[in-house]
Design brief:
- The complex is a heterodimer of chains A (about 550) and B (about 350).
- Chain A has about 550 residues and is mainly alpha-helical.
- Chain A is about 75% helix and about 0% strand.
- Chain A folds into 2 domains: about 180 residues, MetI-like (MetI-like fold), CATH 1.10.3720.10; about 220 residues, MetI-like fold, CATH 1.10.3720.10.
- In chain A, strand 1 and strand 2 form a beta hairpin.
- With about 350 residues, chain B is of the alpha+beta class.
- Chain B has a 6-stranded mixed beta sheet, sandwiched between helices. Chain B has a 5-stranded antiparallel beta sheet with strand order 13-12-11-14-20, with no helix packed on it.
- Chain B has 2 domains: about 230 residues, Rossmann fold; about 120 residues, OB fold (Dihydrolipoamide Acetyltransferase, E2P) (Beta Barrel).
- The chains are: A mainly alpha (about 550), B alpha+beta (about 350).
- At the A-B interface, helix 19 and helix 20 of A face strand 1 and helix 2 of B.
- Chain B: Keywords: ATP-binding, Nucleotide-binding, Transport.
- Chain B: Pfam families: ABC_tran, TOBE_2.
């Protein structure tokens, strides 16, 4: 006798369960249309001639080299800074740890292009510090190009590195260091042989993560790079020039390292990580890993980083609320009223509406996908899973590029519609939620669903009364994360916005590029305020059930 | 008139991959009986329970519940409330909501739900804990909630999947007694899955012994214990001694068999069909053997005491006979007296049971 299984049997079972059938077919249709199809179009659009052009012009070679150099440098410093900052918080006895945590969290509220803006306000031509140096020391500060970009990207991506490394350091059981101390290791030797060794896979992971983010970032390179051109900026130029082929070539080049990193993360690092082997901390034992002198150094370092971050936000706020900061310091709400609350500048409102819609859809879609992939048997599950996770590996710039190339002509045209912006944001955030929810689904013991089934609930009732309520925390957390990312994204949607559907991050970028800094600053403040207010409302709705401000 | 058979399994087969988990299961279960599915892990007992509940569809055969063929009914239409091994309580609901869940799904009137939940909570001694959440309760209390959630459905049948395996030994014994009392009070049909023979012997009206996906024996606890039909059953339930023997004669339900190196004969009652010259096994329980008391019966073997173990109510002796085979004998109520050296083991013929060899 044989078990009834195989493709035929699972299709048959699917047809007996029409609601699942609809979910499976819709999911396939969506992912094929918006993930697989654009990828194929981009590959075909790139074409041989364009590859030849790309490799024959030194301008592109220089852009590629610049991209590699600047993103490696920024990733290196951001990772080192993030590591020291996290190490100080988790391993030393310094004061103000809570404050330092909070400081590392606030940049998440703003788009990374705001760091670029703040940098211009401080160190740009006519920036506060540049002018001060000029009048007092007659020193001409010029940080445009690689030096400025390096500094800005380091600061922009420092929180990402810090958070990734914090996760790694938290997973290291203090028992291990206590054991090593018990065996005679201390000071730098302890750090080198135990802590750093254990954290290394995670630190490399953080470096790679930051590197691919820098690699494809668009806003700051365009603002600060000057003549130091990067690939993402070149793509922008080619799109404006209607050279979709060349843009596709460069887009593919952006994707390659991202895919390699994605593969490395999945295959290599997950196996080589030791940090999962932990134990309960021995109560009453405290690891002492830093001397007083080290503590002092760490405290100074964290204070300097915090000072830098605070001054970036401070200068932005000052510009937003004064007539023309530095020249006319009178308090005013004019800028805010003009670019945030006026109907002629709907950027912030657009951001809010599109981000909310996209975040809701992303989480709902992630929920459906996770449910059918974990719980329902159907053919092609691996393909569906793969195409659902794939966008996580694709840089935002590339996602935007692929969508604009695929949907600006051909059988389906969506160019210029808000839908395309919502879809782009969704594609970037849905995989994160999908992964989280898949993990949560697997944690919900199957017997709990069986118990509901056994007591008379059909699949729909089981989902609505048991599964979804149990996943509420994960759902809300993912929604909040997706919403914040959507509010702040620039690279993903830069090719997709239209005059009607300008969003806040793009407005900041545009105003900053044209030198109307107070408006750029006002939009940034409006954007952050809107994000905070929305998070506040979510917090009120779900009360203690969700931790939003978890830093 | 409603039939006395509540559950009827006809030639049920289930296959996972290449693994034939249930082999031609035929079983009829009467109303109001406490039935135990007993066997080691992987023997198919849980698979059969889940097939009755509808979590698995059988690959061949028929499952009848209360005169209805349920092969194609999904679990939520079968009316077979189940108590899960890990309880599977809904973590986001209070005790009250957990227990009321099945009634709410059926859209029973609010007043009825209140009353029935209240009654069943009293029955399992949970009154006062309505507003607790599962994670705020002890394992024993969680187990009671799981029980109550199934009982409240007022279904004629209840399925229990090793419900006591996560409780400590003392609590287990307590719950066993209560469970049996509730079952008898309500006249429920209970199907109880366990690998614990003591649980099976102490609670059941009937025991179904599983062996590698097939039913080896279906009978009362006494039948299972004293008249095991296969070597497997005899071995799995309790401790026993096996002796090789040859059938000399089999007439009118009595067989004369020859055993031991000396070739002694003993006459044993049996309903097995045995032929002359057939090799069989004799099974005799350690407590049925007496040391140096030949007057107890007709069966005798000489042995040497190798070691012994004092277990309180009894002394367990490990002996070797002339062929070197190990014997276990339990001596009860013997005070300070101990046996050493060469002894004679004896048993009454009616305590010895013949098992046919060709059965696995």
């Amino acid at each position: 006798m044989k078990e009834k299984k195989g493709i035929g049997e699972s299709i048959k079972r699917l047809f007996k369960d029409p609601s699942s059938l609809v979910l499976v077919l819709t999911s396939f249709a969506f992912l094929i249309l918006f993930v697989i199809y654009p990828l194929i179009v981009v590959v075909f659009t790139s074409g041989f001639d364009n590859w030849a052009t790309f490799f024959s012009k030194p301008r592109y070679a220089r852009a590629l080299l610049n991209t590699i150099v600047s993103s490696s440098l920024s990733a290196l410093t951001a990772t080192v800074f993030g590591f020291i900052y996290a190490y100080a918080i988790h391993y030393s006895n310094i004061r103000g740890k809570k404050f330092f945590r909070f400081i590392a969290f606030i940049p998440l509220l703003a788009p990374s292009v705001m760091s670029g803006l703040a940098f211009l306000l401080l160190f740009g031509r006519g920036g506060m510090i540049s002018q001060w140096l000029n009048t007092n020391f007659n020193f001409e500060l010029d940080l445009y190009g690689l030096p400025g970009l390096w500094i800005v990207q380091t600061i922009s991506y420092f929180p990402l590195a810090y958070m990734t490394i914090t996760g790694v350091l938290r997973a290291i059981s203090p028992n291990l260091e206590i054991a090593a101390q018990n065996l005679g290791a201390r000071g730098f030797k302890l750090f080198r042989t135990i802590t750093l060794k254990l954290a290394l896979p995670g630190v490399i992971n953080a470096f790679l993560l930051v590197a691919i983010n820098c690699f494809a970032d668009f806003g700051n390179p365009k603002l600060i790079g000057g003549n130091y051109s990067l690939l993402a900026v070149e793509i922008y130029g080619e799109i404006i020039n209607n050279e979709a082929g060349l843009a596709s070539v460069m887009g593919i080049i952006l994707v390659i390292p991202a895919l390699i990193v994605f593969w490395v993360q999945n295959k290599v690092l997950s196996k080589g990580s030791y940090s999962t082997i932990t134990g309960k901390p021995v109560s009453g034992l405290k690891r002492i890993t830093t001397s007083k002198k080290t503590d002092a150094l760490l405290f100074t370092f964290n204070s300097l980083i915090s000072l830098f971050i605070i001054s970036m936000f401070a200068i932005t706020i000052l510009f937003a609320f004064t007539k023309n900061f530095g020249r006319d310091n009178t308090f005013t709400l004019d800028h805010i009223m003009k670019v945030v609350f006026s109907s002629s500048s709907p950027a912030v409102l657009n951001s809010l509406v599109l981000s909310l819609i996209s975040a809701v859809l992303a989480v709902a879609f992630a929920l459906v996908l996770a449910y059918i992939v974990v719980r329902k048997p159907f053919p092609g599950k691996r393909i569906l899973d793969f195409s659902a996770v794939l966008p996580i590996a694709l840089p935002g710039t590339f996602v935007g590029l692929a969508l604009i190339v695929a949907f600006s002509n051909g059988p389906i045209v969506l160019q210029g519609s808000a839908a395309l912006i919502v879809i782009a944001m969704l594609l970037k955030q849905m995989p994160v939620g999908y992964r989280g929810l898949t993990a949560s689904f697997k944690q919900v013991d199957k017997s709990i669903e069986e118990a509901a089934n056994n007591l008379g609930a059909n699949s729909r009732k089981t989902l609505t009364t048991i599964v979804f309520p149990m996943l509420q925390k994960t759902v809300v957390a993912n929604f909040v994360y997706a919403f914040m990312k959507n509010m702040n994204t620039l690279s993903t949607i830069i090719f997709l916005i239209t005059p009607k559907w300008v969003v806040a991050a793009v407005a900041i970028f545009n105003y900053a590029e044209t030198g109307t800094y107070y408006w750029a600053a006002a939009v940034a403040v409006g954007l952050m305020g809107t994000t905070l207010a929305t998070l506040g409302v979510i917090k009120l709705i779900f009360r203690s059930k969700v931790k939003i401000f978890d830093f | 008139m409603e039939s006395n058979i509540l559950l009827d399994l006809k030639n049920v087969n289930k296959v996972f991959g290449n693994n034939h988990v249930l082999k031609n299961i035929n079983l009829q279960i009467e109303r109001g009986k406490f039935i135990t599915f007993l066997g080691p892990s992987g023997c198919g007992k849980t698979t059969l329970l889940r097939s009755i509940a509808g979590f698995y569809t059988v690959d061949e055969g028929e499952v009848w519940i209360d005169g209805k063929l349920v092969n194609d009914l999904p679990p939520y239409k079968r009316g077979t409330p189940m108590v899960f091994q890990e309880y599977a309580l809904f973590p986001h609901m209070t005790v009250f909501d957990n227990i009321a869940y099945g009634l709410d799904i059926k859209k029973r009137p609010e007043a009825e739900v209140q009353q029935r939940v209240k009654d069943v909570m009293a029955q399992v001694k949970l009154t006062g804990l309505e507003e607790r959440y599962p994670h705020e309760m002890s394992g024993g209390q969680q187990q009671r909630v799981a029980m109550a959630r199934a009982l409240v459905m007022n279904s004629p049948i209840i399925l229990l999947d090793e419900p006591l395996s996560n409780l400590d030994a003392k609590l287990r014994e307590e719950v066993r007694v209560e469970l049996r009392a509730i079952q008898q009070e309500l006249g429920l049909t209970v199907i109880y899955v366990t690998h614990d023979q003591l649980e099976a012997l102490s609670m059941s009206d009937q025991i179904v012994v599983f062996n590698k996906g097939a039913i080896d024996q279906y009978g009362t606890p006494h039948e299972i214990y004293y008249e095991p039909r296969t070597q497997y059953v005899a071995d799995f339930i309790g401790t026993t001694n096996f002796i090789e023997a040859v059938v000399m004669q089999n007439k009118g339900g009595k067989a004369i068999v020859r055993y031991g190196q000396a070739g002694d004969n003993v006459t044993i009652a049996t309903d097995e069909k045995l032929t002359e010259g057939e090799e069989v096994l004799l099974s005799v329980r350690p407590e049925s053997l007496r040391l140096n008391q030949p007057e107890v019966g007709e069966f005798h073997v000489f042995g040497v005491v190798k070691s012994s173990m004092f277990l309180g109510e009894k002394e367990r002796y490990f002996l070797a006979d002339q062929s070197g085979k190990e014997w276990i004998v339990d001596a009860y109520d013997i005070g300070q007296k101990t046996f050493e050296g060469q002894v004679q083991m004896s048993a009454a013929a009616d305590k010895i049971h013949i098992i046919k060899k060709n059965k696995e």
